[in-house]
Amino acid sequence: MSGFEACPPELVPVLSRGRHRSPRQGACFMELASYLAGERWSAYPACTHPLLAALARDVNDHTGDTGLARIAELVPSVIGLTGDDLHLDVRVALLCARVALPVAAASRQQIMAVSVLACERMLATLDGRPTGSLEELSRAALAQVPHAAQWARDFTARGFRDIPLTAQAFRQNSAPFIVHAAVEGIAQAYIPQPGQMLRDLLIGAIAECASQAGRDTGRGGPA
Question: Would the N or C end of the chain have less CB density within 10 A of its end CB?
Fold first, then answer.
């Protein structure tokens, strides 16, 4: 059992796909988180970062019945992981794009490749890096799909670089789109165990949020 797994208390709602009007009907991942956190019953509780919560809901809804019990173990780990730093949004979105890029269908690989470049562009802005610089993990992910990577670079060269990418637009539109497209890409991929990959993706995102949240105090405030 990893550090992101815990046994929830007994007599809690059973995890299932979709939304539920009350705990008696079951719970999705984030509804169960709201229940355990003592918040009002909701799939959008305040105890978890909105993008991490969106990822958890998507993973929940694309996981088969046999896998739901295994992701239920992760619910306690998302409680309290929140913050205003845009690094949280960028890191979660970038992780999702990197993971989905090599396994998604060819048409979706192009979207994921552009998503990797968009996230890196946002990180460069936040961290004061040169525009166009990429982290090693992003370079490695793009190298696995050279045709999609070249298409993405050509697309950005045709004017994408000149389009302003504001923090608000990234948080409200780009990041949720990237996360949803990545989860769908993995769920529909021709791979042996997409459910396991989705669970591992959620574990990785929880780790990213825990790491970034721990750095917030050193940044002097939200982006």
Answer: N
Residue 214 confidence class, pLDDT cut points 50, 70, 90:
low
Contact indicator for 137, 204 with CB cutoff of 8 Å: no
Dump pLDDT digits (tens) for 33-75: 998 999 998 899 999 999 999 999 999 999 888 888 899 899 9
Tokens 């993973």, residue? 59
- CA neighbours within 13 Å on the CB side: how many for 57? 20
17/7 Cα distance (integer angstroms): 20
Cα separation, 104 vs 91, in Å, equals: 20
pTM value is 0.86
- Does residue 5 contact residue 47 with C-beta atoms inside 8 Å? no
CB crowding 108-121: b at 16 or more within 10 Å, else e: bbbbbbbbbbbbbb
- Compute the distance between CA of residue 174 and CA of residue 177 in angstroms, rounded to an integer: 5
3-state secondary structure of 7: coil
Q: Are the CB atoms for 14 and 85 separated by under 8 Å?
A: no
Query: If you count DSSP H runs as helices and E runs as strands, how many of each does the chain have, helices first?
Result: 11, 0
Cβ neighbours around 142 below 10 Å, total: 23
- Residue pair 165/118 in contact by the 8 Å Cβ criterion: yes
